[in-house]
Amino acid sequence: MSRTRALRGLLLADAHRIARDRFLLAAAVYFAAVAVAMRWALPWVAASAHARWEIDLEQYFPLFVSYVALVMGSVAVGIVGGFILLELREERSIVALRISPFPLGTYVKCFSVVLALLGAIVGLAQAAVIGLGLPGWGALVTIACMSGPGAPLVALYLATYPENKLEGFAHMKFVSIAGALPLGAYFLPAPWQYLAGVFPPFWSAKAWWSAEAGDASWPLWLALGTASAVALVWVLSKRLETKALVSARE
Q1: Which of 132, 116, 160 lies closest to 45, judged by CA?
Q2: d(C-alpha 188, C-alpha 195), whole Å
Q3: What angle (nearest 5°) sits at the alpha carbon of residue 157, between those of residues 111 and 100?
């Protein structure tokens, strides 16, 4: 019971940090504004482009909306979580977790689940507000929920590779570049398109595009994205534990 209470207390402390985080507050306002703007602006821009230049932009609605809902949402939540873990590393608090009532790995797993849930909620909320270029609601909810591991993937990368917050900001730019891979890959033919799969959220976006087009293969892409993200989360969590062990010995 003491382990459960200790873990609950630590996760609640992290929740307070997240709630007070100005970046998350700014991101929430930004995403809400983007969702509302896209809901009304996308049809107007598409109609104007078709009337003036006979360009059909509606075919790209699934690309734009999936990028905002799945990729940007996961990256934003992951960045917040990553900097929380990086701060724990800098303060050496994560080293102290090794002698706490529960293993460090348990905390990392629970924190990753929380981030995955937040990522799924953000993605689903964004999609519901925009309401354009969506697959059926059954597929949409499934894709949003199963794409959640993209958030802890980003968080653990930022918590593991940078040595401090300054380096973390530099790595954050790299994450943003990786997040743009689905945008470029959309226009590539298979199998070249699959190279973007090094960034697992691409597969979730691919599942979205397939489901919206009525392609029955979308569960395959979603399963591939979820499995690769979970595998990388496991690898990065082990790396974080190893770095904590090395820090404890110094």
Answers
A1: 132
A2: 10
A3: 40
Question: Is residue 152 reached through a cis peptide bond, with omega within 30 degrees of 0 on the bond before it?
Answer: no
Q: What is the dihedral of CA 94, 7, 14, 92, to 10 degrees?
A: -10
pLDDT digits (tens, 9 = 90+) for 209-229: 999 999 999 999 999 999 999
Q: Print the domain residue range for 91.
A: 2-179+195-245
Instruction: State how many domains the chain has.
Output: 1
Is the full-model pTM beyond 0.85? yes
pLDDT value of position 128: 92
Estimate the crossing angle of helix 2-20 against helix 73-90, to 10 degrees: 120
Task: Count CA atoms within 13 Å of residue 144 on its CB side.
Answer: 24
Instruction: List the structure tokens of 170.
Output: 């530099």
| 75-118 residue pLDDT tens | 888 988 898 888 888 777 666 666 566 677 778 888 898 899 98
CA diameter of the chain: 67
- Residue 250 in any domain: the answer is no
Give the residue from 148, 100, 97 showing the smallest Cα distance to 124. 148
- Amino acid identity at 33: A
Per the CB < 8 A criterion, the answer to whether 140 and 127 are in contact is yes
**DSSP states along 91-112:** TTHHHHGGGSSS-HHHHHHHHH
Q: Which two tokens stand for residue 110?
A: 């629970």
Residue 58 maps to a domain: yes
Is the residue at 190 inside a domain?
A: no
Sign of torsion, CA 246 247 249 250? Answer: positive
Residue 30 lies in a domain: yes
End-to-end CA distance of the chain: 32
